[in-house]
């Protein structure tokens, strides 16, 4: 069944839908066949889609007749459609002419026959017409009455012919008052004053002028006249180039946006001429925040005296000296929904450590800053942060900061490079801080190099780094939250008022997790457990759980420390599932931050170095006297004082001797049955010499000798009969020994 259309949309109508102009080609059963004017795309819009858009005021229907009427109107008025486009003076003229036209219509409706002659200055109906017009639009003084002899200053009413033309054109364009305005701007020469090649020359010069190197227009014009090519035919039309004044007039007519983009670049054009954004990007407190860093336009010092000192870059400390003059970085984190400043930090550099310190400040109480710098109002409370928006600078786009944010349960969003509108709120805060706070302090540098031509910022630096931080703290706590804010979605309310409204409408905020804050945003230290617990930055911490884990042995652990709260730390170890907690065992640091505690430790050694040197000398003298009085240490000038060590070395060398078995000595052996015989040669048969009779061992019945000499001594009795003693072999030599046959073996 074909549905009946609800609205009359004839062929050729224009539908302004979804930001596009669609021309209706034909009415189909399922809808309207349309064609996009910009892309030429052809498709079919369902009938319900068009009717629903019309009901919701999302679709504008322009019929073909209306298109032609609008085209004729724009041609008649030179592009004007409504009276609001005119100046106040022209609007008043249109108002007076409209009163004259309506007066003519009313008189004609009453039966008065108005003609051009009767409406002239001496006509019969002129005064009647002016009286009726005065009644309709008082204040224009159509009658030109004089008061006190003064000249009339009313509306100059034209003749009847012009009055009749007003009425005709008014009715021809469907009673649109814009057609009654003067068209003097359309007068003048119709054909162009410059020939075609001169127009090309102007475009050529302006194109060369729109260059990022920003050349001067006069210089470009002079050189362009030398290189611009003209044909003989073009020179015959006009031999002269357009003047520099004509080109300057054309350059002034170009849009400022085009000029900035052409001569300043796309990045500068987007920053200075961007369209901006007016959307409300957050509603609840802590839902979304923006943070950024800015190099402050001010020099800080200890006392404002300029000093010069030669330092070694390898040995120079990273911390600022007391009187070092330099510019500091300001880190700020801003809540989008309420415009409250959640945290602020100044530093020497923009790095990850200070970014994590900024996140810690946003999630902790700031009463300490309030008391330290004398603030009168309460600071913003700590809040659990949601969506983080920052640029891709090195201070915020790094592994440590991203890990800390994700560990805290935040969602990370990175803004585009060189697009300040992505985080326009925190960018605007830097400008407000500069003009409200820094501009009035000594050492202000200006917003750009060379801006302050009669002021020297470095010699004028008087405030210290801590004084600058105190000034910013008082501004962000006492002043900024209570100023009316004209930003998008604020409607003139103060940030503190907007915070209370957000808490009332969207409920209380989520509290930050102190455990996650310490684990993911705190400092990490590798340490070893002892019987006293564990030390981080030379500050002791201990707990029963930690001692139970250590079990009396040194173990390697990682200590997670919150630099803003030293009362407890969290300890993790490799292979240990649980996260242990340890408490501060030195209560003197209970109310101190990590920086304050380290300053206390350093002050004990750095303060008054001359007095410390004197104390070291007194200590050395006292220790020397005690050592001499004890008598334990001999005189180092006496040589006998060193003999004890030599004697000990000699005794130690004797202890190092090791007994070894002689390699060439073999003791005497005995034949079976003569093992217990005392005879030296029992069982030993000397080797016989060449040609001698074989040696026979003595029989068992032969009695042994009364005494046998030791085997080591050789005597005449060892010489066998018939041999000279000098040529007899040594019976102890294994090479000359022979052994008798074994007769009674047990094997």
Automatic annotation (TrEMBL):
It comes from the Bacteria. Residues 674-747 are annotated as: Disordered. GO terms for molecular function: nucleic acid binding. InterPro entries: RNaseH-like_sf, RNaseH_sf, Transposase-like_Mu_C. Residues 695-713 have a biased composition (Pro residues). Coiled coil: none annotated. Residues 523-576 form the Transposase-like Mu C-terminal domain. Residues 683-694 have a biased composition (Low complexity). Pfam families: Mu-transpos_C. This is DDE-type integrase/transposase/recombinase. It comes from Alloyangia mangrovi. The lineage of its organism: Bacteria, Pseudomonadati, Pseudomonadota, Alphaproteobacteria, Rhodobacterales.
């Amino acid at each position: 069944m074909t549905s009946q259309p609800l609205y009359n949309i004839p062929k050729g109508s224009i539908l302004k839908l979804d930001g596009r102009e669609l021309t209706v080609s034909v009415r189909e059963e399922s809808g309207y066949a349309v064609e996009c004017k910009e892309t030429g795309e052809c498709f079919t819009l369902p009938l319900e889609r068009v009717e629903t858009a019309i009901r919701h005021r999302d679709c504008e229907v322009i019929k073909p007749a209306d298109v032609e009427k609008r085209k004729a109107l724009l041609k008649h008025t030179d592009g004007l459609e409504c009276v609001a486009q005119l100046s106040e003076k022209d609007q008043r003229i249109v108002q007076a002419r409209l009163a004259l036209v309506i007066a003519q219509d009313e008189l004609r409706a009453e039966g008065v026959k108005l003609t051009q002659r009767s409406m002239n200055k001496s006509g019969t109906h002129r005064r009647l017409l002016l009286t009726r017009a005065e009644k309709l639009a008082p204040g224009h003084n159509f009658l030109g009455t004089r008061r006190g002899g003064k000249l009339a200053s009313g509306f100059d009413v034209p003749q009847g012919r012009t009055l009749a033309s007003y009425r005709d054109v008014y009715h021809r364009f469907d009673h649109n008052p814009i057609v009654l305005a003067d068209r003097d701007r359309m007068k003048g020469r119709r054909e162009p004053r410059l020939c075609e090649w001169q127009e090309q020359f102007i475009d050529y010069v302006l194109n060369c002028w729109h260059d990022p190197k920003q050349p001067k227009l006069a210089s470009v014009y002079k050189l362009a006249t030398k290189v611009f090519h003209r044909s003989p035919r073009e020179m015959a039309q006009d031999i002269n180039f357009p003047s520099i004044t004509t080109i300057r007039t054309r350059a002034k007519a170009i849009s400022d946006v085009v000029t900035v983009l052409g001569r300043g670049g796309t990045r500068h054009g987007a920053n200075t001429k961007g369209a901006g954004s007016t959307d409300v990007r957050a509603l609840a407190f802590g839902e979304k925040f923006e943070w950024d860093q800015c190099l402050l336009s001010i020099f800080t010092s200890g006392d404002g005296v300029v000093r010069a000192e030669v330092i070694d870059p390898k040995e120079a400390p990273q911390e600022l000296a007391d009187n070092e003059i330099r510019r500091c970085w300001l880190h700020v984190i801003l809540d989008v929904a309420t415009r409250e400043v959640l945290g602020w930090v100044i530093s020497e550099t923009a790095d990850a450590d200070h970014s994590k310190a900024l996140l810690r400040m946003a999630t902790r109480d700031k009463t300490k800053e309030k008391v330290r710098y004398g603030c009168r109002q309460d600071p913003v409370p700590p809040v659990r942060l949601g969506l983080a928006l920052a640029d891709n600078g090195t201070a915020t786009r790094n592994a440590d900061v991203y890990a800390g944010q994700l560990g805290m349960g935040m969602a990370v969003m990175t803004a585009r490079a060189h697009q300040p509108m992505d985080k326009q709120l925190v960018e605007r805060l830097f400008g407000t801080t500069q003009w409200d706070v820094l501009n009035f302090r000594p050492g202000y540098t200006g917003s750009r190099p060379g801006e302050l031509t009669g002021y020297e910022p470095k010699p004028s630096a008087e405030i210290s780094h801590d004084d600058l931080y105190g000034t910013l703290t008082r501004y962000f706590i006492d002043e900024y939250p209570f100023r009316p804010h004209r930003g998008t979605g604020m409607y003139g309310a103060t940030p503190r008022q907007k915070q209370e409204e957000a808490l009332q409408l969207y409920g209380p905020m989520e509290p930050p997790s102190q455990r996650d804050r310490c684990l993911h945003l705190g400092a990490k230290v590798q340490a070893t457990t002892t019987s006293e617990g564990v030390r981080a930055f030379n500050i002791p911490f201990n707990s029963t759980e930690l001692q139970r884990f250590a079990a009396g042995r040194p173990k390697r652990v990682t200590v997670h420390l919150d630099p803003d709260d030293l009362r407890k730390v969290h300890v993790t170890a490799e292979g240990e599932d649980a996260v242990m907690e340890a408490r501060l065992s030195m209560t003197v640091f209970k109310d101190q931050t990590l920086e304050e505690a380290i300053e206390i430790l350093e002050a004990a050694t750095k303060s008054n170095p001359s007095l410390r040197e004197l104390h070291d000398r007194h200590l050395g003298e006292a220790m020397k006297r005690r050592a001499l009085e004890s008598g334990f240490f001999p005189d180092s000038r006496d040589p006998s004082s060193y003999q004890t060590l030599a004697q000990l070395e000699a005794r130690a060398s004797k202890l190092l001797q090791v007994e070894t078995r002689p390699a060439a000595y073999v003791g005497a052996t005995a034949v079976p049955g003569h093992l217990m015989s005392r005879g030296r040669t029992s069982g030993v048969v000397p080797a016989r010499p060449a040609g001698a009779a074989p040696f026979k061992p003595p029989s068992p019945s032969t009695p042994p000798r009364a005494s046998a000499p030791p085997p080591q001594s050789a005597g005449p009795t060892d010489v066998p009969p018939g041999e000279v003693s000098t040529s007899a072999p040594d019976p102890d030599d294994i090479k000359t020994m022979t052994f008798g046959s074994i007769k009674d073996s047990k094997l």
